[in-house]
């Protein structure tokens, strides 16, 4: 985990999900720290069992996730996951669906 000047934020999840689910990465702590958003997005994928997907709902302040999230997912998981851009939310955030193989 990276060093943050503020308190350590709550994890995005504290259990392994044996179903498809959504990870909320839209909090003010995510807006303030893109690295935290990426770290917690990776943790969400790690907490999703094979055959399921997690929707990573990213904060709009960082722009389209293709500019920072896709490469991080590729570096971390390679062919073990596939992702697709779903949509931009009304609040300005973005949804990326990550399928765990």
Automatic annotation (TrEMBL):
Residues 1-30 are annotated as: Disordered. It comes from the Archaea. Residues 1-18 have a biased composition (Basic and acidic residues). InterPro entries: rSAM_target_put. This is Putative rSAM target protein, CGCGG family. It comes from Halolamina pelagica.
């Amino acid at each position: 985990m990276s060093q943050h000047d503020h308190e350590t934020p709550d994890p995005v999840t504290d259990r392994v999900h044996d179903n498809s689910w959504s990870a909320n990465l839209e909090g003010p702590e995510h807006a303030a720290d893109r690295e935290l958003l990426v770290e917690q997005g990776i943790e969400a994928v790690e907490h999703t069992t094979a055959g399921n997907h997690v929707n990573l709902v990213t904060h709009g302040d960082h722009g389209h996730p293709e500019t920072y999230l896709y490469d991080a997912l590729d570096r971390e998981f390679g062919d073990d996951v596939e992702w697709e851009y779903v949509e931009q939310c009304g609040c300005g955030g973005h949804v990326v669906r990550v399928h765990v193989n």
